[in-house]
């Protein structure tokens, strides 16, 4: 909806900006729409019923659509990190000045009420050339842009996109100057989680490695470890529930327990991501031991206990899907073992009069025996 169709916007100079303009021209699904208002004041927006929501600069929600409308603004670097900016928003800030503060040229395009493209920094040409290029040298003022460049490449590399050489040089400069270390872990995780859900998550980590940021932000994955970690991402089925969770799990499943903890702590990964990584590590160990173990039934029981399958049976399906990609025969054996062992319930043993430690020991013995017999006849 442009200004000409909306009484709340009558008389205002309004432009659609950013991702919606970019993705529409890429033929990519357009998500949220962001708008910039030029030449207006905070009071004018309030008088039209817009609700202020911005803490650091004037952003408003439309009274009917609830889309975001921001007053045109400029930024000046005052401190370290991605929050160390002084914002200036006033009616005298032009659209071109607002677009100049954006990260990449493909994000610095706007569309007026008549649908005409406003493109002062060559975003359309870079879209056609499939380039992620910085808008201005001010790129180096915000370390978050290193992560955003990597994440956008994870989204668009399969379309032929690359990071411009001069932009990658500025990313390396940001890292070398120490700015990247000022990013808070929560913000690093936000970008990482988004990248894990993109079409080519490998591109995210490869880009961070190429500019030196990975060694600062996620040391356990850096250097020679990364190639082995990324090779595992291909085995995560795209139709798996929460693929981002299991991609993260596979990235770190081969790390020692201390390194897994260090990696998750470095980015403050949520508990479900940490748990998935631990489960994936146990599953990897199971695969290795099953190749040499005298008692596969015993190894399978230890695995089921380790992932807490008896209380959390929902954990089985995604782990079996991961195993099936590389070891389908083992996945079939595990599915059969689980189906039979889970039918042996504590109540039957209680009815036999077993209590306390004897109950737990006999329950485990019968389940393992059932698994052993099933594997022998499979």
Model description:
This is Polynucleotide adenylyltransferase. Keywords: ATP-binding, Magnesium, Metal-binding, Nucleotide-binding, Nucleotidyltransferase, RNA repair, RNA-binding, Transferase, tRNA processing. It comes from Salinicola endophyticus. This protein is α+β, with helices and mostly antiparallel strands and 378 residues long. Among the domains are: 1-120, Beta Polymerase, domain 2; 283-377, no CATH class. It has 18 helices and eleven strands. The protein has helices spanning 19-26, 42-47, 95-100, 123-129, 144-156, 165-176, 185-196, 201-211, 213-217, 225-231, 243-252, 257-267, 271-290, 296-306, 316-326, 328-341, 346-351, 356-377; strands at residues 13-17, 34-38, 51-52, 59-61, 68-71, 73-77, 85-89, 110-111, 117-118, 131-132, 162-163. A seven-stranded mixed β-sheet has the order 3-4-5-2-1-8-9. A two-stranded antiparallel sheet has the order 6-7. Strands 10-11 form a two-stranded parallel sheet. Helix 15 packs antiparallel against helix 16.
Order of helices and strands: EHEHEEEEEHEEHEHEHHHHHHHHHHHHH
The rounded distance between the terminal residues' Cα atoms is 63 Å
- Main sheet: which strands, in order across? 3-4-5-2-1-8-9
Helix content: 40-55%
Low-confidence region ranges: none
How many helices? Answer: 18
Q: Report the CATH superfamily of the domain at 1-120.
A: Beta Polymerase, domain 2
* Net shape: elongated
CATH class assignment of the domain at 1-120: Alpha Beta
What Rg is obtained from the alpha carbons, in whole angstroms? Answer: 27 Å
CATH architecture of the domain at 1-120: 2-Layer Sandwich
Query: How many strand units?
Result: 11
Do you know the CATH topology of the domain at 1-120?
Beta Polymerase, domain 2
Structural class: alpha+beta
Overall residue-averaged pLDDT value: 92
